[in-house]
Design brief:
homodimer; mainly alpha; Arc Repressor Mutant, subunit A; Tetracycline Repressor, domain 2; elongated
Chain lengths: 218, 218
């Protein structure tokens, strides 16, 4: 069957995916039936099943799209500095999230349950992409430490934290908010790379304002 | 009825709450029935209903516990510096999350749907606590900017980012992992407050390694 293009320029399949993404984001995958998807997109259920043989295949398309997008956001220019790569990663991710908040929401909301809905191969594909993203950010930090550009730090923990800070923004990022996605990326990466403390002596000698070793009781 | 204390020192109600939290975290609130909770805790359903008249009251207890805990983690010592407050907030939150990963997981996983399960008053209570936490972190950053301790920055965006980085750690934080919760708090707050770039000239003149204004195309 040839692709039917709808009035908004999306193919029927793309439109179906966009509508299902909104429904899953609002009601959860478990709380959305194929009937709801058919109603919302204005097709009969048989036509919906023509495009997607099961509800889980829609969910997988959402996951695959988000995972592939995130891997594509990795900035793999070998001549770039660690700080450039950290900034560009945040910028591309945030712009992408702002352009499809619901997809990011579904991705995180359904994450704990995907092994229930997906085949082993599907789960393995998603996990492999997630590992690629984590390892890329960790390796960028490690290379920055090795070259002397960055302070020695726990690249594992910071990669997880920075990815969480960036991807977690789907909770409050709004495409037409006070700040653009790019401005938010600048704020995040500047804070992480330059730090917030002005006074260089304070910054180097006492960044947390306390002696951490003695501070385990409260 | 007097509280029955079980062999592990928890009251029956606490035990019920802990078991339900684990089930909700693994299967989702929607996917867990009161029968499952009764089976898992080894009580009959009537006894479960004695403690919690509905499944949503269990979920609310989980939410209220997490929200109250997070507000209690705010460090409100007026003599503390902004950097001390930022560090202590992360430390208390991470230690608390490490002590009850499932509670944090339920809190985030069910977040988009709580208006379905909770009364308006219950939702308002949770939202008020969340607002208190956000405003506290934002105000700490604002006071740090005003006193000259911190660089000028977008305190709104950074408060949301820092809270997301910290709370989002429930996804990968493990109570007996390679790093303790306190060590992770030190990594996060050091990166944010001191920054990652070593060279002070680079750090101040070109923290992102690019001129941001010209960089809007790729």
């Amino acid at each position: 069957m040839s692709e039917t293009v709808t009035t908004n320029g999306m193919s029927r399949r793309e439109e179906l995916l966009a509508v299902a993404t909104k429904l899953f984001a609002a009601r959860g995958y478990h709380g959305t039936r194929m009937d709801d998807v058919a109603d919302a997109v204005g097709l009969n259920k048989a036509t919906v099943y023509h495009y997607y043989a099961s509800k889980s295949l829609i969910l997988y398309d959402i996951y695959k799209g988000a995972a592939d997008f995130t891997v594509d956001a990795l900035h793999d220019d070998p001549s770039a500095s660690a700080r450039e790569m950290i900034y560009h990663f945040a910028r591309r991710l945030l712009v992408g999230i702002a352009g499809n908040i619901e997809r990011a929401a579904v991705y995180f909301q359904e994450g704990p349950y995907i092994t229930e809905w997906f085949t082993e191969e599907q789960v393995a594909y998603i996990r492999e992409k997630e590992t690629q993203v984590y390892e890329h950010v960790r390796d960028v930090i490690d290379r920055g430490i090795a070259s002397g550009e960055l302070y020695d730090c726990d690249s594992h923990v910071l990669a997880l934290g920075y990815i969480g800070m960036t991807l977690g923004s789907y909770r409050w990022l709004r495409p037409h908010g006070r700040r653009t996605a790019q401005e938010i990326a600048v704020e995040f990466s500047t804070a992480l790379l330059r730090g917030l403390i002005r006074d260089d002596a304070v910054r180097q000698s006492s960044p947390l304002g306390v002696t951490v070793e003695a501070d385990t009781l409260t």
